[in-house]
Write a structure and sequence with these properties.
heterodimer, A: mainly alpha, 80% helix, B: alpha+beta, 3 domains, eight-stranded antiparallel β-sheet, two-stranded parallel sheet, 12% strand, globular
Chain lengths: 142, 623
Amino acid sequence: MNLSHRHLRYGWWTLFVFLALGVVLETLHGFKLGWYLDVSNQTRRLMFTLAHAHGTLLALVNIAAGLTLRTVKEVVISPRASSALIWGSAILPAGFFLGGIIVHDGDPSLGVALVPIGALLLLYGVGSAARSVAQGTASSVK
Amino acid sequence: MLSSRIVWAGAAAVLWCATMLVVSLSQGLAPSKPPDNRPIAALASDLVSSDTCRSCHPGNYASWHASFHRTMTQVAKPANFAAPMDGLELSHDGVDYRVDRGGQGYRVRSRPSGAPAASFGPPKEIVLLTGSHHLQVCWTETGLGRTLGQFPFAYLIAEKKWVPMSHSFLVSPDIKQVYEKGSWNDGCITCHATQGRSRPEPNGYFDSQVAEFGISCEACHGGGREHIEANRNPLRRFALHLSGAGDPTIANPAKMDGPTSSLACGQCHSIQAFTNAADAAKFDREGSSFRPGMKQLDARTVTQPPRPGQPKEPAPREAHAFGDSFWPDGMIRVTGREYNGTMASPCFKGGKFSCLSCHQMHPEETDAGSLNDWKASRQMKPGLGESDDACLQCHQTMKTNLTAHTHHAAGSSGSHCYNCHMPHTTYGLLRALRSHEISSPTARETTEFGRPNACTLCHLDQPLAWTADKLAEWYGQKPPQLSADDRLYSAGAQGLLRGDAGLRSLIAWSMGWAPAQKASGLEWFYPYLIFSLNDPYAAVRFAAWKSLQTLPGFSGHAFDYTVNDARQKEAVDLGYRKWWFEVRSAKVSYRPQTLLRGDGMFRQDIFDRMLDQRDQRRMLLTE
């Protein structure tokens, strides 16, 4: 599959999913649900907010990656880096979300262990993309 | 090329920013000097303060923050005062007091009553506040180091009224000042602050320190330093979460056996005495070394008088000071010391029963509304409140057998466990409270020990013989030897006429208690409550006034219980006239057992005789 198309498709769908999560969180605010808003559940609120924010931002990053690949011919990223970017964009916010479903006072649940895994995948994916962009733009200048 | 004007403007901006940075850093980094006119917060060895607990336990922090434990003692910032203070002027015992703004909040000046305005003395800053539930008390600087003096008034929060301190407890009328200089440092500090150290100095001053003002997390959970260090490791935390095991680095009374858990509360909620002078001195210097989870208090013992039939042990040091705090059979009769009652209860001997069987310190719901409800319910577990469920947790057979046991209609106040087994026989903070010694009512407790029994605290109109007969018939209790009066006349009326000041307060309070009004008929309460507005004890007058306000026709009745002079006599006279001419129904026929004639007048001969027999001993019931 075309990597550009893959990032665009993933980006737009996850943007939809995490914007929808934002709507859910606003609804929880609207109905003042203690499960989300009470002081004792502030860890859950933090985790869900982080999931929403990271998920939305990373969706935009994937859209940007897809557009970059489509419009800048000199930029080529490896399929492995592309997969790392996509999986990292999924696993990191999912870790925050799962960590918030069950909380232990100030600690999230074990789902939060996905977050560092996702973060490492993202670092690899974004780093590779950055290197490719740098190399691509350098060759085009020559 | 930049113009010189722009260069100068840029240089000025850089200089200004640098100056602001230096000033900000010096302000932020310079250690703030602790105040030297009051006790200060200084952490002790293993304590870390509630702020440190907050980040990991936000819900528990929120419930504690909403509790009255937190506000037991507060620094006297303007926001912490329950009363409006601006322009306050009060007089007591020949001294006028005037409050104005100053220091960190408010200052007090005083002068002899009637002296010229210019004779107000130097201001003394109000530095600490104790209480925030029923009443609040102000403590002032004295100029003697961190030794505190007392502003001699208490603010009754519900009544929005300043009263002399001596009128906020049950105090003999000849006592005008309850506390003296250093009372907070030497006494209150132990239980109105966390890890208080009074630190008396050779010159008689105090250099007192506390870990935290108010009762904070570590009062009940022990020092948190080891817990914090151990739980920086997330793997350890998740291992504990997943295993569900308790954390051995911190005490949790909810996971202890009953007696150990209750002692965490009992370290304050009990009558205590130091075991010897050396231990007392060490305690004053270093604070308590007791930590929740331990089986015994340190340096102190819980003072519990021997029960009838038990051998008498040598009285611990200072135990004499609490003589009024117990009924003659050793049952606690003053509030704030519930552990004495709990530990003497049969339930306690099973090893599982504790304060936390009924109370909950950290409710799960932490929204503002739920926390307010929880506070209003005296921190009961959700759903328990005034229901029978607290008792039915263990006494499950009673669920199906309730009316056969109680001999009262299901759902009535007579079928309610608390009303018979935890009657209102303790007193403090100007109200009657439920006994925390779970017991069964007997006629003997009244004849031998002078304590009202649960039956006649509700059926105030009935003679003691009626109680004895019912208890004999229903439960096979052997009736005690009864006097002729006990056979004929209302136990409630007798208590109000003949009882000591503590008993009179309980009876006057009970006359305002809805179940007693329903069971006894309230028409005959009027003359007794109006008569009790004349009682020599302010606490009795207060109880009578509050109960009178619950009766039809006297809602909102104005009366100043703090005065005891011609104005009071006049107010009582007016109250009596109001009842006789406006409220009293001619259709009501008053029963002779209430010592009233059919028309409501006192049966004067018996009334006078009982009044002559009144227990006039001086009483002091504080908390």
